[in-house]
Specification:
alpha/beta, elongated, five-stranded parallel beta sheet
């Protein structure tokens, strides 16, 4: 994991960095909350270990700033502080922290907390991947439900729904609505003489021509049925 350690005491930072590096993680350091947010923005780490009480910008404010900068994401934040009152722990969690450890923290406890956050983060990433895959599948399903397989134009179902919607909007806006019905002349003898593959390609050619004529987002070219 990439881990940012934010603490105003250099000796504490160095000791923590050595401890975390021995666990096999990559470490970045910052001496106050302001600098910690900057390092977080640059490195986009997997975890932040943050002192609660620091000059310039304390850990609570830094955590709130990080949360504000990633509305769609989540970087685990563990507070490390010598303040151990219940209200200090509550303040840390309320400001965006995910855990709160009282200094000095042992290597065993810190390692366990980091592994726990890593498991949570891995699960969140997997859920995010699944959500994105599901959204993509839903978009593809919606496209297939509204698309004519042969021509790639909108199908009859999409045409009917679009006509209803645009009729309502035209009525509300008191503006005209145009509908053009195109029928391919002599299609049946053409299809019978040259075969269905040639007929299909003919319909695709007509569809491409119609599709290129659309110049407004609300315009729709659809296959009504057969060669219409």
């Amino acid at each position: 994991m990439k881990i940012v350690i934010v603490d105003d005491q250099r000796a504490v930072r160095v000791r923590l960095a050595a401890m975390v590096e021995k666990m096999g993680h990559e470490v970045f350091q910052a001496e106050d909350g302001e600098r910690g947010v900057e390092v977080w923005e640059r490195e986009r780490p997997d975890l932040v270990l943050m002192d609660a009480l620091m000059p310039v910008l304390d850990g609570y404010a830094a955590a709130r700033r990080i949360r504000a900068l990633e509305p769609e994401g989540w970087t685990p934040i563990i507070f490390l502080s010598s303040a151990e009152a219940d209200q200090d722990v509550e303040r840390g969690i309320d400001s965006g922290g995910d855990d709160y450890l009282v200094k000095p923290v042992s290597r065993v406890v810190l390692s366990a907390k980091i592994r726990a956050m890593q498991r949570i983060d891995d699960m969140r990433r997997r859920m995010g991947d699944m959500t994105r895959s599901l959204a993509e599948a839903n978009r593809e399903l919606a496209r297939l439900n509204n698309e004519d397989v042969l021509t790639g134009l909108a199908n009859r179902r999409c045409f009917d729904e679009s006509l209803r919607q645009q009729t309502r909007e035209a009525h509300r806006a008191e503006r005209p609505l145009s509908l053009v019905m195109v029928d391919v002349d002599f299609f049946k003898p053409y299809n019978d003489h040259l075969g269905h593959q040639a007929g299909d390609e003919c319909l695709r050619c007509v569809a491409r021509v119609l599709e290129t004529q659309r110049d407004q987002p609300v315009e729709i070219a659809a296959r009504y049925g057969g060669e219409e």
